[in-house]
Amino acid sequence: MPAGPLPEPFIASLDESALDLADASTLPPACYTSRDFYEFEKEALYYHEWLCVGRADWIPKTGDYFTTRIVGEPIVVARTLDDKITAMSSVCQHRAMLVAEGSGNARGFVCPYHHWSYALDGTLVGAPAMSKTCNFDKKAYSLPRFAVELWNGFIFVNFDLEAAPLAPRLAKVDEAIAEYELDKAEGVRPETVQQLPWNWKVMFENNNDGYHASRLHQGPMHDFVPSGLAEFPDSEPSDAGFLRYNGTLHPDASFNATQRAILPIFPGLSDEGRNRLVFANVPPSLSLVMTCDMIIYLLIRPDGPETHELDTGLLFAPGAMADPAFAHKLDVNERGALSIIAQDMHVDALVQEGLRSRYAPRGRYSWQEGAQGQLNKWLIHRYKATQDRLVAAQPADTALTSVS
Ligand code: FES
Ligand SMILES: [Fe+2]
Predict the structure, then answer these.
(1) Is 359 helix (H, G, I), strand (E, B) or coil?
(2) How does pLDDT run across 289-330, given as a tens digit for each residue?
(3) Domain tally, the chain
(4) Range of the domain at 292
(5) What is the pLDDT of residue 198?
(6) CB proximity list for 54: less than 8 A, separation 6 or greater
(7) How far apart, in whole angstroms, are the C-alpha atoms of residue 279 and residue 246?
(8) Cα 114 to averaged position of ligand 1 atoms, centre (Å)
(9) Atom of ligand 1 nearest to the CA of 99
C-alpha cells in the first residue's frame, strides 16, 4: 500500500530539528521506530533519491552481475553487451520469483521457476508455452529498469526514472574528495552482509558523529583524531551530500596500533589531506570514512523500521593490493578498525533500545555534532516536501491520526 500523509502536528514537530545546531533538538524518536514512518520514509527518500548499491569494478566484464536489496526491493545490477551498467528489479514478471541470486557471470537471466528468460538489460526474450495465452505481449513484461549513475566508481540507482542527476548536486563533496581519486581506488566486493538491529539513521549518525570520538573511543587507537578538531563544511538541504573533516594530531594517521599509515597513502593527497580524516556522505545509503591509506565505505540498506543490512567495503591506493605483504598489513588495519567499530555497534544497539523507550528524548546537540544537523536538514527538507505531495494527492481525512 502506498504511504499516506502523516499527522500534521507530527510533521510540524520536525521543524525544531531543522534549526541551526545551537537551537536544534534531535528528531522525534518515532522517526527511528515507527512502521508508519518507515513507510512514509520510503516514499520521501528511497523511492526518489539516488541509492548506492556497489562499485563499478565489481562487474568488470560483460555478463557480470550482482544482486542486492534495499527497502525490500530485490535488485540486480549487470554489465550489458554494450558495456553499460544496468540495474533492474530482479522480480520475475510472471509470478514474482527472483531471477537472480548472489553474483556471477551470465548471458542473461533465466527464471528458475518456469524459465522465462531475460536479456542482461532486463528485456523479456523467452516465455515457454505461452502461445495459447490471449493478448500476451512479451514487450510488456520486461524486468522494471532503474536509472543508473556512476559517481567516483560507485554505482547509484534510482527507482524514479525522472530524478534529477546526482553528480551536479555533489559538487562540494566531489571537490573535497577529489585528491583521493576514488575512481582509481582498488578494492574487492565485500562478501559479508551484516544484519543490524537498529534504524538506518542510527547507523548513519554514528558514522558522522564527531562528538563521541574522544569519549566512546578514548584510548590509543583513536586519540590522535580528537573531537575538538572536527569541522563541518556548510551544505544546503538541496545538496545530495555533506562532509565532516576531522583533523589529526600527526600526519598520515591511520586506525591501527602504530597510529600511522602502513599501507601506501593515496598518492594525490595534499598536506592538508594528510593531516585530517574526511567523512563524506551521500544519504541515505552511502557513508565514507577516508583515512590516508584506507577508505571504509558503508552501504546502508534498510529492510524495516528498526533494522538494516550493511555492506562494509574497503578501498586502497592503486597498486596497494599487489604488495606481497598486503594481507598482513591489511590485517593490522582491520584489527584496529574493528576494535573501534565494535564500540560503535554496542552503542548503536543500545541507542535503538533507548529510542523505543517512553523516556526517549528529543535531546540537544554539541557543536561537535554538526553532521547530525546537516543530515536533519537534508531529511526534513524531503519529509516536508513529501508530506505536501501526499496531502495534495489524498483527501485530508485519510491522513493518519497517530504515528505508530
Ligand atoms: S515466476 Fe518466473 S517464470 Fe514463472
Ligand atoms: Fe565511532
Answers:
(1) coil
(2) 999 999 999 999 999 999 999 999 999 999 999 999 999 999
(3) 2
(4) 10-49+168-385
(5) 98
(6) 66, 68, 77, 154, 155, 189, 299, 311
(7) 8
(8) 5
(9) 2
Dihedrals phi, psi of 288, to nearest 5 degrees? -115, 135
Q: What average pLDDT does the chain have?
A: 96
Nearest CA residue ID for atom 3, ligand 1:
114
Q: What integer pLDDT is reported at residue 4 of this predicted model?
A: 85
Contacts with 185 (C-beta within 8 Å, 6 or more apart), sequence order: 153, 266, 295, 315, 316, 317, 318
In a domain, 359, yes or no: yes
Q: Whose CA is nearest to atom 1 of ligand 1?
A: 95
Pocket test for ligand 1, best of 101, 116, 124, 142 (most atoms within 8 A of CB): 116
Same domain, 183 and 216: yes
399 within a domain of the structure (yes/no): no
Q: Establish whether residue 215 lines the binding site of ligand 1, counting it when its CB lies within 6 angstroms of any ligand atom.
A: no
Q: Whose CA is nearest to atom 4 of ligand 1?
A: 114
Convert the pLDDT of each residue in 73-124 to its tens digit: 999 999 999 999 999 999 999 999 999 999 999 999 999 999 999 999 999 9
Q: Is the pLDDT of residue 367 over 90?
A: yes
CATH of the domain at 345: 3.90.380.10
Mean pLDDT for the stretch of residues 53-76: 98
User: Which ligand does the CA of 98 lie closest to?
Assistant: 1
Owner of C-alpha cell 598536506: 271
The single-letter code of the amino acid at 188 is V
Residue 294 included in any domain = yes
| pLDDT tens-digit map of 319-347 | 999 999 999 999 999 999 999 999 999 99
